[in-house]
Specification:
Four copies of one chain form a homotetramer. Chain A has four domains: about 1-85 and about 120-170, Butyryl-CoA Dehydrogenase, subunit A, domain 3; about 90-120, no CATH class; about 175-310, Aminopeptidase (3-Layer(aba) Sandwich); about 315-460, Aminopeptidase (3-Layer(aba) Sandwich). In chain A, helix 7 runs antiparallel to helix 8, helix 9 packs across helix 11 and helix 19 (about 365-380) crosses helix 23. Chain A has helices at about 1-5, 15-20, 25-30, 40-50, 55-70, 75-85, 90-100, 105-120, 125-130, 135-150, 155-170, 190-200, 205-215, 250, 285-300, 315-320, 330-340, 345-355, 365-380, 395-400, 415-425, 435-445, 455-460; strands spanning about 180, 220-225, 235-240, 265-275, 305-310, 405-410, 425-430. By secondary structure, chain A is α+β, with helices and mostly antiparallel strands. Chain A has a seven-stranded mixed beta sheet, covered by helices on one side. At the A-B interface, helix 2, helix 3, helix 5, helix 7 and helix 8 of A face helix 2, helix 3, helix 5, helix 7 and helix 8 of B. Chains A, B, C, D: InterPro entries: Malonyl_CoA_deC, Malonyl_CoA_deC_C, Malonyl_CoA_deC_C_sf, MCD_N, MCD_N_sf. Chains A, B, C, D: It comes from Teichococcus wenyumeiae. Chains A, B, C, D: Pfam families: MCD, MCD_N.
Amino acid sequence: MSDVAVAEVGLFDRAWKRVSLLWRDMAASVGSPTADASWEGRMRACLEARGGEVSARARAAGLAQSYQTAPEAVDKLAFFQALAGFDSDFKAVEAAMGAVSAAQDTASRAAAKAKLRQALEPPRLKLLTQFTTIPDGMKFLVDMRADLMLLMGHDPMLQALERDMRGLLANWFDLGFLELRRIDWSSPAALLEKLVGYEAVHKIRTWRDLKNRLDSDRRCYAFFHPRMPEEPLIFVEVALVQGLSGSVQKLLDEKAPVLDPRMADTAIFYSINNCQRGLDGISFGNSLIKRVVTLLAEELRGLKTFSTLSPIPGFRRWLEEQKDAPDLLTEEEAKSLTEAAGTPDGNAAIALVLAARRPLALPWIGKAEPVLTRLCARYLVLETGKDGRRARDPVGHFHLSNGARVERVNWRGDTSEKGLKESLGFMVNYLYDPAKIEEYHEGYVGEGSRPATTALRRLARGSR
Amino acid sequence: MSDVAVAEVGLFDRAWKRVSLLWRDMAASVGSPTADASWEGRMRACLEARGGEVSARARAAGLAQSYQTAPEAVDKLAFFQALAGFDSDFKAVEAAMGAVSAAQDTASRAAAKAKLRQALEPPRLKLLTQFTTIPDGMKFLVDMRADLMLLMGHDPMLQALERDMRGLLANWFDLGFLELRRIDWSSPAALLEKLVGYEAVHKIRTWRDLKNRLDSDRRCYAFFHPRMPEEPLIFVEVALVQGLSGSVQKLLDEKAPVLDPRMADTAIFYSINNCQRGLDGISFGNSLIKRVVTLLAEELRGLKTFSTLSPIPGFRRWLEEQKDAPDLLTEEEAKSLTEAAGTPDGNAAIALVLAARRPLALPWIGKAEPVLTRLCARYLVLETGKDGRRARDPVGHFHLSNGARVERVNWRGDTSEKGLKESLGFMVNYLYDPAKIEEYHEGYVGEGSRPATTALRRLARGSR
Amino acid sequence: MSDVAVAEVGLFDRAWKRVSLLWRDMAASVGSPTADASWEGRMRACLEARGGEVSARARAAGLAQSYQTAPEAVDKLAFFQALAGFDSDFKAVEAAMGAVSAAQDTASRAAAKAKLRQALEPPRLKLLTQFTTIPDGMKFLVDMRADLMLLMGHDPMLQALERDMRGLLANWFDLGFLELRRIDWSSPAALLEKLVGYEAVHKIRTWRDLKNRLDSDRRCYAFFHPRMPEEPLIFVEVALVQGLSGSVQKLLDEKAPVLDPRMADTAIFYSINNCQRGLDGISFGNSLIKRVVTLLAEELRGLKTFSTLSPIPGFRRWLEEQKDAPDLLTEEEAKSLTEAAGTPDGNAAIALVLAARRPLALPWIGKAEPVLTRLCARYLVLETGKDGRRARDPVGHFHLSNGARVERVNWRGDTSEKGLKESLGFMVNYLYDPAKIEEYHEGYVGEGSRPATTALRRLARGSR
Amino acid sequence: MSDVAVAEVGLFDRAWKRVSLLWRDMAASVGSPTADASWEGRMRACLEARGGEVSARARAAGLAQSYQTAPEAVDKLAFFQALAGFDSDFKAVEAAMGAVSAAQDTASRAAAKAKLRQALEPPRLKLLTQFTTIPDGMKFLVDMRADLMLLMGHDPMLQALERDMRGLLANWFDLGFLELRRIDWSSPAALLEKLVGYEAVHKIRTWRDLKNRLDSDRRCYAFFHPRMPEEPLIFVEVALVQGLSGSVQKLLDEKAPVLDPRMADTAIFYSINNCQRGLDGISFGNSLIKRVVTLLAEELRGLKTFSTLSPIPGFRRWLEEQKDAPDLLTEEEAKSLTEAAGTPDGNAAIALVLAARRPLALPWIGKAEPVLTRLCARYLVLETGKDGRRARDPVGHFHLSNGARVERVNWRGDTSEKGLKESLGFMVNYLYDPAKIEEYHEGYVGEGSRPATTALRRLARGSR
């Protein structure tokens, strides 16, 4: 009976509770132990839709509840294996493939292909869809996919199931369904608490820190889905400032004076976070940035520049890999560094820096700055990943794909432990110029060209 | 440029209008005549996503606008033909079919099938999805499918396209996304005006008639979709009464006294209407009725009976086909009718009734009532359609599939011209008994059994 | 018991219904017949607040219900008489007056006056305030004052009561509490239905007429009070047009093409209606017009002119009174009219016009137009009421007090029966020029100066 | 000009900002230095309403802004003195008093009194009312009264002004205007932050503490005013528990398990806080408690008992005053205490207890418990204030006036520093029994009777 109660609750929570008495016979038959209480048996019962679609969804709700309360990962794995088993019927697929092969003209081929597609549609899709009706059903599905991605390993059946789920979710979470909402200090505390949990780029330390990030010269926007109204999908934090920001510590300084946002000429996107692991591979970031640029440009006419202040997560690793490369430093650089650090040769000096837990504490680090800055520019503007084409830095790749350009490299941009460890404290501004976005995007995606300011480009090429 | 303005407008209408100046270069390049301005050329531009997804959607918005303002059906047909042309690549499909055939074990077969499904996915799906982002994009797609169903004829390519659209819409309009809302006299006039347009069972004649249908002893509920918030998908009108209602004219009488709804013991569902032709084949009615039963049972504890008062659209046609059947009437009936009508035989009297513009005006019609009632019961309880299984009456089939039973046949239930013409004025009550719904549904769907009261069943069988 | 149920219902309607069982003893004691069940006895029970304020308000709610269901005007009159009887205590007033007379310095006089004010405060005010807690209590009080104004006649006690009510309501309906809302075709039908009832200047004939008045080139705004959220207090209808409108029939023509509001340069306020008789004497019109001018100027930058198109309700009556005045017509005018109408002298011609049920139907009326126009200008710009100062026309007085000026007189401005009867079809534009409002207001209120265009002023003075 | 911009902003903030250009001439004249820029001169300008009411309110807004930015208390004092000076005209009052004295019959006396009331109405009331139109005008008035109460001292003019403000606010903050809202973890963070600031009974230490107080077995309700929608007026915190709670530390323990609220049989009101000093003397607490009791009783049918867990702020002070009273202790008590504490006589022992900063730390305090408990019961049930009638304890007086009874005294009920200092750690439950509220209220207010359980009553009387 509890299955029915859960089934359609939604907005009508209390209604159902009582009406369940009225519907008791129906409930009883639904809740009655089916011949087969295994995952597979219960899934079959949902798919057969005995008693009609409404009853089937009541059963699906029961199934969801059992999944959620399953004590062990191994139970969930069994659930997924059972679900993956509801695949398309091979005989029917074979017949439909035959018809496609036999079709002579475009028209009959089109018809045959349509039938083949239908034959290939796995029944498990129907069951997954039934879960949408339960309260918080969409969140349930998203979290279920997150579980599946953890558990599937290299099992081809589970991977096929995962692709099905991704396809369904991509459909339901299409941009056309998303709602852009501003988050501020008037937002529900429960939502703000979630932000704290989801912020991974620059951790929110306290409620005071959070409040500071939602002050009048700050903005925070998130995408939401109508069926998960209390769960942000992705959010971006923006600072309204004068001139490009080069230091995230300054941006997050709670004691910094608040700027009248109408005086701001620059919007700095300093943190963007995906919130739902279960939506991995379904991309919102590009669209979110552009929507927010549009909104801000309308609200605050003084804004002329839209830029990120971004981490460079792969810089240090790359540098470590390069440290023995012969052409890493110019002769002059090597000499200067050697003198400063008191080590026999330049590369060793770099190695020293890399080894240091706190590079900024080294007395001669100021001397190393121009060298490191040049190398950072090179890393961002010239270095490619394994495919020999994409920017090597993943954050860089994201923004360049979106049509941004590399604008400025900032020494001491992030002096937190994480910042020093990942990128020796460097940060970078990627600039979104509405007039150039399309061109840059095409250039990067098409020919792998890497838009950057002339100065940065020259700097990057310095040693070559 | 206008394309961009349309593209993302949504809630941000005014924002976009002005920001379009800021984004002018982007806009210009999007709006610039592409090499190929044909439907096909423009569709290709959307699918190639030059300049990124946001630009592509801007182009799709332009395409949508062109479609909407296309002057002639022939232009729309050309649009659909171009769109249908973006089918899956046959070579890729052939290769993927080969891999399926070659796979040896279940796991590799599963993987191969998943790839085949992907290969079969027609690119036009992506373009259709891009339309969701435009304002009122969902309504645009629904209306587009309605157009397509009118225009497609027997063209297999267009039929395949139609199936694609149906699949997409079925996904997006899954029950899990629908919102049940009550409509009453406090609802927006713009929405009520739509109800007037969509009500097809018992036409709403005036605003006074409408207000009467939304009075305190009436209820109206509709399903809505979050992306079409001002468009009802389906709605049901309910009267709260004492005892089963047998006459729709009495129900709609504006001068009838208003009942305190807490005194009602019966809810009569007297009109249910689908509003969107473009959602044909995606069924909401069953779920709507059950949700409303649940809601009402909770709100008004006095309600014990949930029943429809339904038209019998096929009765007269069936009777005409039967009028010369030798076993139509019992001997006694034939005699009684012959006397009453002064005609040579009872069947001829029936024919006379059928021929009359206003059968109720025949002086001897009262004599014919028992005969016609019996025939009506027979039509509803025994007669089947071409498949020899389903109830012949389409409204009957709908309610029996949902798990209702045939409860009572009402002479003079609908004395409107339409009622007399379709069913000689008869109406029928289908009763929803929560305790029996599942059983009845199973019986009807499984074995074709036709639940009805014993009295009706006897009456129906009377002449056999 | 029902009294308690009514008392605090408010938003918590259903809650109270059930909790009333819990509170049954309290309810019983409140509901028990007091020693004195007369209006006066029950009022005394409320004022004594036996059982605390919450109980007292429960009793007040019962009293309100009895008032509302009182069958005859005479019962309501008795209610008012009883209520008026709860006046300040004369002995206490006398003592306090003595203290005021005895006070020597400003400070002690201030204290004594404050005490006298307190002594003068009639207990009935407290009871009136208790009515605010009942559901729709504010509407109840407003309607009660409307009743009182009808029934009070010249009874000084009832007039004093009426003044009390007006004072209370003026406090509660201060501008600071009012909410300006736009009304359009998406507003609740129940609200639109009220508009139809309240529109008295240009009757709304049909829902189609109403919809036309809420179209995209029309605006309608109303003030609402937070405690009467479904009741408009006053509303104004505005047409967005090009150039000054001179004909209300053209404005209301349902077949006229709709103008893109961004193309409009002029906003015409063509109807303003007070909705609550019980708020007579508490003025919102001035503020409403100015708020709407502000809003429109912001929304539609193209708007440069804000003007009314107003009736001239007193013109015909004035003209009739003047018809034998020797200087009404110039010699020339008299001659021209006499010729045209074929009557012996000019005044008789005017009389003829006045007598005509349908002046526009007279064959020679075109000849009379310049004369009538001049007289209309004179009536508006020069004629005064009994005080020798205020504009004689009441609508004119309202707009001139608000700081408008007389802009243009329109022949055939309102050819409805009412328009012809009241003003021979003339209408007038009062223009609100934000830069002049304060000056015009001061001039009119201070010195009785009557702002008008030079042309109108000359025309008005023509015959003098 | 800024004055105008501020004046009517309200919801139309942005609208005004731009339209102020349109209205520039009006603005200029309003903003122009009046002949007299003193407080008095500016107040006079508002009252004269030159340019109409809208202009006057613009000026009042400017005045409000000057008040808010006045640098020193002395400026505010000058503001209040100027405002107090706008008193009723003494000549007019004298004349009106004469007319009252001269009136012979009730009717003409009523009329004369009404006129006298009008003559006594000080013009400053009108100016105060003009402040309602500014954004946050209601909060401005409330805060202004708080300032005035601080500054007025014994100045009779300022006291009269304060009474005026209180009268106005009492009218506007009548129960009929208040909205009861539940506050929970989904409420805006900005609102929750205010709660933290306003909670004075049991300080909220951290966001975690706050979240714990808003958990599913806790409730928090507040009254709001429609014109101060983001400012709570008063709020109450409730715990849903099983059986009467005797310890606030246990209630606030963040680690205590959460109770399913449907299992609760008792609602404990453990903190009630007024938030606006400027509303002192306008009482909401009684009504808030009763509304919340009603709501909870409806929502959770299992609740049978509604009780407070209250501090006893005056107990320790009273005890100190009594310490030399001869009959404070019985002989036996004195002996037992003397032995326990090792002091020569009982009273000294009490003194010792009183002196102790941390009574619970005394080794023999357990021995003292029965004595202290008895004295606490006596304090609550028998002791009166100066008038010889009211309960001496102010919290006790509040709840007894509301119709509660003294239910139980709790040793170690509040072991916080404040609790120990004020009441040696004792707390008390006041019980609200819906069936008795009216009777208890009447008894207490009428005859000063003090409802309590028989046990407590006996205990209290023990030593007499």
